[in-house]
Amino acid sequence: MTPTEPSQIRPAFTWDAIDCVLLDMDGTLLDKYFDDYFWEHYVPEVYARLNDLSPDEARRRLLSRYRQVEATLQWTDLDYWSEQLGLDIPELKCRINHLIQIHPHVIDFLSFLDKKGKQIHLVTNAHSKTLAIKLRKTRIGSYFSGIICSEVVGKAKEQPVFWEKLEEIIGFDKRRTLLADDTVPVLASAREYGIAYLIHIARPSSRQPVSYSAEFPSIAYFDELIF
Questions:
Q1: What is the pLDDT of residue 4?
Q2: What distances in angstroms separate CA 21 from CA 117, 155, 173, 180, one per listed residue?
Q3: N or C: which terminus of the chain carries fewer CB neighbours within 10 A?
Q4: CA-closest candidate to residue 36, choices 186, 208, 209
Q5: What span is annotated as the signal peptide, if there is one (predicted)?
């Protein structure tokens, strides 16, 4: 029997209760299809050609190596993977940057927050080189009061200490802060730290179906938060 998918827990808050909005990048503001395709298909194909492997064998080997460093700073460190795989990972990302896309309604939502006078911070585990590539392609950087990579904080967002250090850097009141992210372990770590308002992004990739969280209020698109 196929397990029943969780039904949507709808967000229930008022914008008057929130001063600061923390927004993840990949899968939240940007379509995660680019990242999924890049790491699961494109990099293995290039790696296979250089190492005389079949694409399937290269994919199997690389997925295993990815899993070993998930939820750590190494997972998103492009310099680490360039060294480990003998590839120029930033250059490979630039080759297919036409796949980098903003999710529907994101610009409308960012404009809405700006008109509401909210502090808006982009908070991402993405490496600084990835961030630069994506901000150059999407041109969304001007909407943010601050842009913080986990490498600057020194911890990944999956670790509650990340939020403690982030608060020291940007000075938010966790009782009046909202975080939107597509990764449940990140939301769980933020909840453990005490961030009051948490929103799960239920459709991080345009090529995948909506999948609501059983724990957190969820949205498929940001127009659901324009109220």
A1: 80
A2: 11, 20, 11, 8
A3: N
A4: 208
A5: none
- The backbone torsions φ and ψ at residue 66, rounded to the nearest 5 degrees and listed phi first, read -60, -45
Q: Which long-range contacts (CB under 8 A, 24 or more apart) does 185-193 make?
A: 185/71, 185/158, 186/24, 186/157, 186/158, 187/213, 187/215, 187/216, 188/215, 189/157, 189/158, 189/159, 189/160, 189/162, 189/163, 190/157, 190/160, 190/163, 192/160, 193/160, 193/163, 193/164
Q: Which helix (H) or strand (E) holds 177?
A: strand 177-181
Query: In sequence order, what are the residues at sequence separation of 6 or more whose Cβ sits closer than 8 angstroms to the Cβ of residue 1?
Result: none
In tens, the pLDDT along 127-145 reads 999 999 999 999 999 999 9
Q: Please tell me the pTM assigned to this model.
A: 0.94
